[in-house]
Write a structure and sequence with these properties.
Chains A, B: GO terms for molecular function: rRNA (uridine-N3-)-methyltransferase activity. Chains A, B: Its EC number is 2.1.1.193. The structure is a homodimer. By secondary structure, chain A is an alpha/beta fold. Chain A has 7 helices and 13 strands. In chain A, the strands form 2 sheets. In chain A, strands 7, 8, 9, 10, 11, 12 and 13 form a 7-stranded parallel β-sheet that branches. In chain A, strands 1-4-5-6-3-2 form a 6-stranded mixed β-sheet. At the A-B interface, α2, α5 and α7 of A face α2, α5 and α7 of B.
């Protein structure tokens, strides 16, 4: 049986009960159309989920759930902000299992997103985590300059996607490494400048290709995340 | 140097000149802002491209271009029409190299798209082929019933994506086959019925998974096409 899902903050759980915000009540009763006595799943966004039963003013925790749909390695996407379509990137990459999205300002991306945008992206990540049946809500980090992002990323394996040129395909690289935590940087419309790619290489990022065709700034992260998620799921033989 | 691209019909080429429609003139002069004497690329949508120079009332073909960005195997996507977002599926899958998209009506997809919708999807496929620098414009076929689509698909390798269950991952299957032409079927919201999956298996479709998380009807075809395109590009060592 399919059960609805709701992400809550860990502090909302007290003595085996869940205390909801007014917005969450509205969502449960009006949007999901649940009734007192109905069962649904709550997730704390940090990896834990519970089967719960809706009461008049709270929900009773019945049992913890140990399904595991998270990728066994952390994946950080470092994304130069495209002019449009970042909502869709956040949504699809969350479904595909991304751990963290770090928006960056690059030479060809001038816009510094408003705090409203960040709130919006975090809400989309939460909704997409619920709908795709994840246990963890990915973190949308505050935007930083590209150089700061490149210099502070501590993933074991680091890639930068370059649209033209003769770099090995991302899938080739993924198949030739022992997969650890991965960070991958993708540019916006117009791609990276040569200087940006060189800086990334200096910080240990390997340049990779996503294929012979030119992908839009919306498609490229979804494609990269598809290849990374599939490759990571295959290493554990859990796919 | 980056050159603009325009898809034309093969019959528009006569004696090394290209005769444009009024809409194409408008596009070249007003949208792309080209001027007489400017060079750009025309593609006949069937695999041939030429460097051309804009004249007052036509364009002169200067030389044929033999860049090759097409996948070396044909890929057919059989897609149950989602309620929303099919524009984005057509656009992204075109960028990723799809050969043919066959929209199907399934048990959980009732809507029969209008001819306006088909015209729109074909225009999107043409624009996306131009922008992603493909030589071929993928064919958007007229919608048919799922059973007809399953029974008439003649690709050597056939997959059907199933959202839950214990099927091997698409990438596992792609890595274990000698890759020939591929057809892949993906459901809409709610997925396929059990009967539909069984019918597909009867027609030689292998059930596959796209991972442990639940993908939306928009994300699933883009993810599948990302995995197929990368796997096909790798077989020829041209990636």
């Amino acid at each position: 049986m399919y059960l609805q899902r709701l992400a809550i903050a860990p502090a909302q759980i007290q003595n085996n009960s869940v205390i909801f915000t007014p917005e969450q009540y509205h969502y449960l009763y009006r949007v999901l159309r649940l009734q007192t006595g109905d069962r649904f799943i709550i997730m704390d966004g940090l990896g834990k989920s519970w089967l719960t039963q809706l009461q008049e003013n709270s929900a009773q925790i019945l049992e913890s759930i140990d399904t595991q749909t998270e990728l066994p390695r952390a994946v950080t996407l470092i994304l130069a902000l495209p002019k449009n379509g970042f909502d869709e990137v956040v949504r699809a990459c969350t479904e595909l299992g991304v751990s963290r999205i770090l928006p960056v300002m690059s030479d060809r991306t001038l816009l510094n997103p408003s705090s409203q945008k960040l709130i919006r992206w975090r809400r989309i990540a939460q909704e997409a985590a619920e709908q795709s049946e994840r246990q963890v809500v990915p973190t949308i980090l505050d935007p930083v300059d590209l150089t700061k992002a490149l210099s502070t990323t501590d993933a074991k394996i680091k890639y930068i996607c370059v649209a033209r040129g003769n770099n090995p395909h991302l899938l080739t690289r993924l198949q030739s490494e022992r997969l650890e935590d991965i960070a991958l940087a993708i540019g916006s419309e117009g791609g990276w400048t040569i200087q940006e790619v060189e800086t990334a290489i200096d910080y240990g990022f390997q340049p990779v290709s996503l294929g012979n065709r030119i992908l839009r700034a919306i498609t490229a992260p979804i494609t990269a995340m598809s290849l990374i998620a599939a490759s990571i799921e295959l290493i554990n033989g859990n796919a």
